[in-house]
From TrEMBL:
It comes from the Bacteria. Residues 53-100 form the Flagellar protein FlgJ N-terminal domain. Pfam families: Rod-binding (PF10135). This is Rod-binding protein.
Length: 113
């Protein structure tokens, strides 16, 4: 394995290991699992909005040959899938920040109650 491939492979392995540890922790704490799911869903929605803007000014020609109703539906589904895949592969960090904030707010609310 070349040095150029070793670093990405190591990063991928660390990312997978981190997701396994997160999965185990989430299984033990249902509140954390629910917060993580909501944060992930929010990040996916955010990414979908951002990817839609990338496709807004595409020309008249597209994979379907036009930008009519079929092209709009296809573009919507494509941006949705792009957003899901970006989020699944680690996202942009929005999800982690939101989850930490939600858990912090929950902890503050439980202390105050």
């Amino acid at each position: 394995m070349t040095a150029a491939l070793a670093l990405p492979a190591a990063n991928l392995a660390l990312g997978v290991a981190g997701k396994v540890v997160d999965g185990i922790a989430n299984a033990l704490d249902p509140a954390k699992a629910k917060a993580k799911k909501q944060a992930d869903d929010f990040e996916t929605m955010f990414l979908e909005q951002m990817t839609q803007h990338m496709f807004t000014n595409m020309g008249a020609e597209g994979p379907l040959g036009e930008n009519g109703t079929g092209g709009d539906v296809w573009r919507s589904q494509l941006t949705q899938q792009y957003a899901k895949q970006i989020q699944k592969s680690g996202g942009i960090g929005v999800s982690d920040q939101i989850m930490r904030e939600m858990l912090s707010l929950q902890a503050q609310a439980s202390k105050g109650a």
